[in-house]
Structure formats: C-alpha cells, structure tokens
C-alpha cells in the first residue's frame, strides 16, 4: 500500500519560502501576517527593523494556498522593485475576477468604503439636468438616475467615473466652469452612463471595460469627434 504524506504550510511558512526565493542569501527576518478589514482588495508588505509584515485583505482569509503564494510573489516583487512573475499575476487576477469574489469585494466596498458625493448642482452645470436630457435622448428615459456629483479636486487625469459599488457617477470639477462648453460635459456624462448600460466584462484574467457594444453605442453621440477634441484642449 502506497502512503502519501501531505504537508501543510502556514501562511507564515509559505511567505518565508517566497522571501527565500527572492533573497536566497538573506536571513529571513521576523515575519508577521495580518488579515485586515480593508475596503478593497489591496494588500501590502512592509520591511523595516521590526521585520517583514504582510497586511492582507481579510476577503482572502481562507483563500487557496496557491492564491496566497501568488499574492506573496506579487508583493515581494513590488517591494524589491522587480518584475512581477507573470504566472502569479495572472493566477491572482483570475481569482479576483471570479464571480463570487467580485461580489464579495463589492459588498465589502459598500459596507466599509466611504464615497464622497457632492450632489449634482455645480457652480455652472447641474448634472441632474444633463443626466435627464441625455436619458431622454439616448436611453428612452428608462435609465434610473444614480448618485451624481462633482469630484473634490479638478482632476485633468480622470474626467469622470462610474462607481458601481456606490452606484454613483462623479465628474471632475474641472468641467464645472463657464469656460467649458456644455458639449464636453454632456459627452463625459454620456460616456459614464454607458457604463451603467454595459457593465465591465470579466474574461479569465482580463477585465474588459469598454466592450464592442459599449463602443458602438458611444458612436451614437453626435459631434463625438468635436467633444473629444474639446476635452483634449481642456486637459492640456
């Protein structure tokens, strides 16, 4: 009769092994693993005189050992400023993209995260009015209005975003100005409204934000080229 011995590593033992693979000639420092109640999937590692501390989102507590090993490799690679091993990056993304994990992370973000929403009325533009005008023109008036607001700071990098966890559309305060044509604000709002109609698709390790259907619908916006040119000039 063939007997097989099965060995189980603790998270500390597994992460110590990962450390040794990155730094084979360095003595393994005191190593601590903490599961923290973060509002997202972010995890981190810190290495100081007290040792090596891994702070891992508690959503991953009980995750398969292979997933924690991949996360350990990702964190160590970032800590030591080395390329993240592809096999570990893909394995970790695939796990987070699983339907049940996406749902768990969304619930965590809803319950723990805080979302600042200023309200739709700005100094120049009323986002509620713009939303309803676009809703009637392109969505038959059937789209339920999410939370609407302006960002705290006038970002030139992120002109708008839709947050599905809080069902909110936020536009950059940079656009709330008499110097910004209404066409530019309408286009950004229209783009974010399309994210309600066409949610992000997950294909294995890939996340497809702008699907073919999304892009086809976006082309229905009149003066699309002019609106994009306006935004380009505003951001430069």
Please give a structural write-up.
This protein has 236 residues and is of the alpha/beta class. 42% of the residues lie in helices and 15% in strands. The chain contains eight helices and eight strands; from the N terminus they run H-E-E-E-H-H-H-H-E-E-E-H-E-E-H-H. The chain has a three-stranded mixed sheet, covered by helices on one side. A three-stranded mixed sheet has the order 4-6-5, with helices on one face. Strands 7-8 form a two-stranded antiparallel ribbon. Residues 1-6 have low confidence and may be disordered.
Nearest-integer average pLDDT: 87
Using the alpha-carbon principal axes, give the shape.
Answer: elongated
Give the proportion of residues in helices: 40-55%
Separation, N- and C-terminal Cα atoms: 74 Å
Q: How many strands, which pairing sense, and closed or not: the largest β-sheet?
A: 3 strands, mixed
What is the number of helical segments per DSSP (H or I, 4+ residues)?
A: 8
| Alpha-beta classification | alpha/beta
β-strand number:
8
Enumerate the strands of the largest sheet in spatial order, edge to edge or round the barrel.
1-3-2
Radius of gyration: 23 Å
Task: State which percent range the strand residues make up.
Answer: 15-25%
- Low-confidence segments, given as residue ranges, are 1-6
Order of helical and strand elements: HEEEHHHHEEEHEEHH
């Amino acid at each position: 009769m063939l007997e097989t011995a099965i060995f189980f590593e603790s998270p500390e033992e597994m992460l110590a092994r990962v450390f040794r693979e990155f730094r084979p000639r360095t003595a393994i420092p005191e190593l601590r693993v903490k599961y923290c109640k973060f509002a997202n999937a972010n995890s981190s590692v810190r290495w100081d005189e007290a040792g090596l501390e891994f702070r891992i989102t508690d959503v991953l507590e009980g995750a398969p050992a292979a997933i924690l090993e991949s996360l350990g490799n990702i964190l160590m690679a970032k800590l030591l400023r080395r390329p993240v091993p592809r096999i570990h990056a893909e394995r970790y993304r695939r796990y987070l993209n699983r339907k049940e994990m996406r749902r768990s992370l969304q619930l965590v973000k809803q319950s723990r995260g805080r979302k600042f929403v200023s309200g739709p009325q700005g100094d120049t533009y009323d986002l509620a009015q713009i939303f309803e005008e676009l809703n009637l023109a392109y969505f038959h008036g059937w789209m339920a209005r999410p939370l609407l607001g302006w960002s705290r700071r006038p970002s030139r990098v992120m002109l708008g975003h839709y947050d599905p966890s809080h069902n909110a559309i936020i536009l950059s305060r940079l656009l709330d100005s008499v110097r910004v044509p209404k066409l530019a604000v309408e286009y950004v709002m229209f783009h974010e409204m399309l994210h309600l109609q066409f949610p992000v698709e997950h294909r294995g390790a890939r996340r497809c934000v702008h699907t073919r259907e999304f892009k086809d619908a976006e082309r229905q916006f009149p003066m699309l080229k002019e609106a994009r040119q306006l935004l380009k000039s505003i951001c430069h």
